[in-house]
Amino acid sequence: MPRLTTITLYEHDEKMYRDIAGDKKAIQDALIKLNKQFKKDFKKLDKSEDNSDTEDTIDESKGVVEVYANKIKARHYVGFAAVDNVFLQILPKVFKPKKGQTQETPEDTWEPILAFIRMLDMAYGLKIKDHDLAYLQGRNLRPNLYEVFIYLFAKSLWSEVQRGYHREYVEVHREEKFLRGKLLMNQQIRKLPHQLNTFSVEVHELIEDNLLNRIFYASVREALRRTTWGLNRRLLGELMLAFDGVTPIHLGTEHFERVHFTRLNERFRKPFELAKLLFMPASGKGKSREVSGFFVDMNKLFERFIERVLSRYAEENGYRLTTNKDSENRKELFNNKPSGASLKNQYPDYILHLNGELVILDAKYTELIKTNKKGETKIELKPDIARQLYVYSRIWGHRKVNGTEVDSKPLSVIIVPASSTYNQGISDKPLEFEFFDGRKLYVIAYNLDFLKEKRNVTEADKNFREVLNKAIENRESG
Predict the structure, then answer these.
(1) Helix, strand, coil tally for the chain in percent (to 5)
(2) Please, what is the average pLDDT of the chain?
(3) Which helix (H) or strand (E) holds 176?
(4) What local confidence, expressed as pLDDT, does residue 74 receive?
(5) Tell me: the pLDDT tens digits for 314-360?
(6) Cys-Cys crosslink for 63: which of 38, 81, 90, 442, Cβ 3.0 to 4.6 Å?
(7) pLDDT digits (tens, 9 = 90+) for 45-90
(8) Which pLDDT value is given to residue 105?
(9) What per-residue confidence (pLDDT) applies to 241?
(10) Where does 385-453 show beta strands of DSSP type E?
């Protein structure tokens, strides 16, 4: 069997083929296959708006990665995929090691992997236990996103199986010597004389061989086929024995879609969601999935992550939070426009309602602190971002009172990610800007190093809230 080629990139990074241990043609073929599948129906936690190519106009060089003759380049998607004998993992740029570090150690890769998983856990409610992540990091294993998720799936499933198998009533048709259950008359009356010593019946039995367990069994077999960690192989081997009496199936999308959770099987939801994330085929055609894994648009992930942070902040302070999903956050820019002209509604990511006042907030997964060749740093706030926040403040601050136009000039806030190597220096205090008309704009950062360094997420939240409170207090005092 050909050796597995592992490629680790950070967002927007590029790597020459000569720096990758593997056959160049095999790598190109695998990544082009990934791009094609990605643009058709490969699983993405959030669909990106820039992926609008049709099947007939696929650009094979773009998708998850840009494929060139001499190199590959990552785009803005983060996650992993196993294609043929190539494993690709793309990590967030915010966790990229410092420039000039020639050799990246396994610990340098473990930190961004676990921080990314903690972001996913908070944003999508995967209910991942942090002690499981810490356990893996301390096992001196080769850092690999796919293997981590296989472990989390197997560990959560094994924990539930040890508490007891999931059993449910399944309709069974069989031949019985004694009449029980429901007699199937349409089959019984067609029997020949020598067959009349049995009854064709329909019974409902509480058994382990049900749809959910069949999905788990098939997922365990697939994981065992792909994993290279000895830790995972041992855990999956135990699960293979546990599901030995379950009928093997060829996983299809329809299998996952037919599962419904009740109070009787709710405890299996976590391993099911992880199995779905890892092994649900890209389409319901019943074909084997050639590409396994998932990717997420980091812009969308950061927005969703900050939404969870602000929800807790609003709840604890007695504020109300609305998001771009709420209809009240969508307002038209024009009163009138030409017939046939279309313009998307203007709306920010979030609005905090503070006892009659508004705070307009927008999450931007972007770098504001730039370093030149001399090592000097400066803040570069892109004009389109500043104009966007000004428009938001103008729209939501404008109202009429007794026929008079009033502008409350609500505070605008840009939220960016920060770490020791990304937007360094703006995580401890808000950056204050003032527009020409006195309108205030603040830039604050969420320090993701708290997630990377295994510290509690509440510490990161506390740091962020203190900075946000400073911005609100400065606005009120001004």
Answers:
(1) 40, 25, 35
(2) 83
(3) strand 168-176
(4) 93
(5) 999 999 999 988 877 777 777 787 877 776 667 899 999 988 889 99
(6) 38
(7) 554 444 443 434 435 557 889 998 889 999 999 999 888 888 999 9
(8) 74
(9) 94
(10) 398-401, 404-407, 411-418, 431-434, 440-447
Residues in the chain, how many? 478
Q: What are phi and psi of 360, to 5 degrees?
A: -90, 125
User: For 265-297, how does the pLDDT look when each residue is reduced to its tens digit (9 = 90+)?
Assistant: 999 999 999 998 888 876 544 444 567 788 999
Other beta carbons within 10 angstroms of residue 271's beta carbon come to 25
Band of pLDDT at residue 386, cut at 50, 70 and 90? very high
What sign does the CA torsion over 189, 195, 199, 202 have? negative
What is the number of other CB atoms lying within 10 angstroms of the CB of residue 313?
Answer: 18
Return the closest-CA partner of residue 92 out of 295, 294, 298, 277.
298
CA–CA dist 37, 34 (Å, integer): 5
Find the angle CA(253)-CA(220)-CA(171) to the nearest 5 degrees: 60
Check: CB of residue 435 under 8 Å from CB of residue 441: yes
Q: Which two tokens stand for residue 393?
A: 């403040």
Do 418 and 447 form a contact (C-beta atoms < 8 A)? yes
> Treating both helix axes as pointing N-terminal to C-terminal, what angle do 106-124 and 145-163 enclose, rounded to 10 degrees?
60
With a CB cutoff of 8 Å and minimum separation 6, the contacts of 424 are 369, 418
Q: Quick one: tokens of 408?
A: 């409350």
